[in-house]
Amino acid sequence: MARAHRHYIPGCVWHITHRCHKQEFLLKFDKDRKRWCHWLYEAKKRYGLCVLNYIATSNHIHLLVVDTGEDVISRSLQLIAGRTGQDFNIRKKRTGAFWEDRYHATAVETDEHLAKCLVYIDLNMVRAGVVRHPSEYAISGYNEIHNPPKRYAIINRKALLEIFSFHNEKDFLQEHHNRVEIELKNNSFTRNSLWSESVAVGSEHFVEDIKQRLAGRAQGRSLVSLDGISGLKEPQATYRTLFDGKKGIVSLDNAYLLDFNSTNSKY
Fold it and tell me: Domain segments of the chain: what residues?
C-alpha cells in the first residue's frame, strides 16, 4: 500500500503509477475501477488533490497530479490505495496485499513534455489493444475532459487551462483532441518506459538540473533519451515514492519549485 510521507516537493507536476500486487488483474472488473475512482474523488474532496489526468486499467493506474501542499499527494494516495484494496478484499473475502509496495512518481517538466505525458496516459488502453480510441474507455481522464460530469468531477479543469496557458476551454479541448488524433493516425502506441520508470522527464536541461539538485542521491541514476524525451532513469525499474524525506530519492533539503506562471509554451 502507498505510504504517507512527511516531506514533499512544492509546485511540481507528478506522473504517478501504481501496480497491483504481482501485476495481477485485480482491477479487471468495472465495479473495482469505479471504487478506485470513488476514492480518487474523495481524495480531491478531503485533501484538495489536484488531478490533471488519470486512468485505471486492469492491473495498474496512472495519475497526473500537481503538488499543492505538504502531504497532499501522500495522504491522498494512502487513502485511495488503502480503501480500494480494503473494499476489494472485503467483497472477495480475501486477505493479502492489493498493490505493489509503493507507487512510483516521476517529475514532469511543465512544457511540451507535460502535454505529451497527458496524451501518453490517454492512449494507455489503446496501446494495450483494449480499445481503438480513448473515448471508448469509460474510466479515464480523457472522457472526463471532453464530457465533464455534472457531479463528482475529478479533474481540475482550471488547473489544466492555467498550466497549459489557455484562456479558452474550447481551444484547449480542440488542441487536446488534435494531439490524440495525430498520435492515433501515426500509430504512436509504443510504450516509453521513461514516463513510469524515471525520477524526472523533460528537457535535457531540466533533467540535468534535477540530477544536480539530488547531489549524492543521484548516484546510480543516469541521463537517458528515448523517442526524443530525456529522463533521469532509476537504476532499476522499481515502483517507489519520491515523497519520503528519509528514504526517498528527493528530500525537503533539495526541493525545487516550478513556476507555472513563467511557462509561456502552449499545450
Answer: 13-256
Say how far apart CA 189 and CA 42 lie, in whole Å: 32
Beta strands 50-56 and 60-66 are antiparallel
Per DSSP, the three-state class of 115 is: helix
Per residue in 188-208, pLDDT (tens digit) is 778 888 888 888 999 988 888
* DSSP letter string, 143-194: HHHHS--SSS--B-HHHHHHHTT-S-HHHHHHHHHHHHHHHHHTT-----TH
CA distance 119 to 106: 16
CATH 3.30.70.1290 for domain 13-256: yes
pLDDT of residue 99: 97
3-state helix, strand, coil in the chain (%, to 5): 45, 15, 40
* Per-residue pLDDT tens digits for 234-267: 665 444 434 443 444 333 333 333 333 333 344 5
Cβ neighbour number for residue 174 with a 10 Å cutoff: 12
Q: Amino acid identity of 253?
A: D
Q: What digits encode the pLDDT tens for the residues 133-164?
A: 999 999 999 999 999 999 999 999 999 999 99
State how far the Cα of 47 lies from the Cα of 86, in Å rounded to an integer. 20
